[in-house]
């Protein structure tokens, strides 16, 4: 699929979204919003997918909102409110997509782009990546789910520091404080992200999807509610063909199809 602001391809059950506005550092405008809103239901409906990678073209992940575009629009407070509310018709679909989502962040992930990266389950970044909740520099508050996502990743005190100071974070610090999982050279970042995503090809989509869904709600629920969700999810997983076949392979002393330790060892040669 080729849209005006992004490309979407699938390679052996791994989807790849690439933002293709490099001349604007992949800044988010209404076209990109509409393209994402159109694409995400299609990704959700593709039952063959096992993982999704999101990246940006031209040495930038996403530089945030397109300020030139926004400055040219004349909007009332009511229109502004509706504009932000509309984000939450599709952004939660990305955050709650029942697939592993990997953000490959090269260059800036600022403002809305910062929160777009945080919506992924795993953030792999290049050595030149920069993260910033930049909103405060222009007298705004975080949108795109930043108030929800950031404290859950780095804790409340660090989230306040990053939001209130609007300072930028480099790749090494991003790993240290929990914003990113690993750092790679720019030229190998996308290959590393695709290889990481590819390890989920033989995973159980049902088990991974339900585990992610429960984890995403875990901070908002008490122990009893989580125990109930666990019981319902496990009762379903026990009945899947994937589980039955995995048990058969184990009893027959055959290698399991999904073995992360083995895949990681094999990737290192």
Question: Care to describe what's here?
Answer:
- Helix 1 runs parallel beside helix 3 and helix 4 (112-118) packs across helix 5.
- The chain folds into two domains: 6-198, 2-enoyl-CoA Hydratase, Chain A, domain 1; 205-267, Lyase 2-enoyl-coa Hydratase, Chain  A, domain 2 (Orthogonal Bundle).
- It is α/β, with parallel strands linked by helices and 269 residues long.
- Strand 1 and strand 2 (14-19) form a beta hairpin.
- The strands form two sheets. It has a six-stranded mixed beta sheet with strand order 1-2-3-4-6-9, with helices on both faces.
- It has helices spanning 30-45, 67-72, 77-95, 112-118, 146-154, 156-165, 171-177, 189-198, 205-217, 223-237, 241-251, 260-267; strands at 6-11, 14-19, 51-56, 101-105, 108-110, 122-126, 130-132, 168-170, 182-184.
- Helices cover 49% and strands 15% of the residues.
Key features of this structure:
269 residues; alpha/beta; 2-enoyl-CoA Hydratase, Chain A, domain 1; Lyase 2-enoyl-coa Hydratase, Chain  A, domain 2; six-stranded mixed sheet; three-stranded mixed sheet; 12 helices; 9 strands; 49% helix; 15% strand; globular
